[in-house]
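Records of this kind hold a single protein each, on a pair of labelled lines. With that in mind, the following record should read easily:
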Amino acid sequence: MMCDHDVVDFLKKAERIGVDVWIDGGWGVDALVGQQTRPHNDIDIFIQKNDIAKFTEMLKSNGYRETKMEYTTLDHTAWRDDHDRTIDLHLFEFEGAGALRFENEIYPSDIFNGKGQIGGIAVHCLTAEAQLLYHQGYEQKEKDRHDVQLLCDTFGLKIETKKQIHSPFDNENQT
């Protein structure tokens, strides 16, 4: 389990080594609403690919080991320590003005414009709209349904399908 003081401690370590972190998933939703609303098994984070060496060194020096999961890719790994705290790590690259690349897909970089709070500290996270979008397209567990409902209730959002949400990059390759 990752409680708020675990998250704060982890984020401070990342800050000390100069790595910017953006939070998504359940902790990202709780950050947006400013309080922990449910237990969390892990923390989902994004960091820039060019920070991977110093970041994984920090993880290893704090007792984390890479753990193979069914979703593991070159840009998406999991790290677990002996206390069963898990870091779900996503690697991305900024791609010019206003864009980022994650797992060979291009996204608008403003998905990282979310601001939140965990354990009394300000954090960067995905926006509520991005969180809602990325909580779709898979079989949801109870915790996911909780997060979606919380996002909708708190931010006045409604669930839309991915087809209804358009990136500013949708028309780039059309002539």
About this structure: The chain has one domain: 4-128. Confidence is low (pLDDT under 50) at residues 162-175.
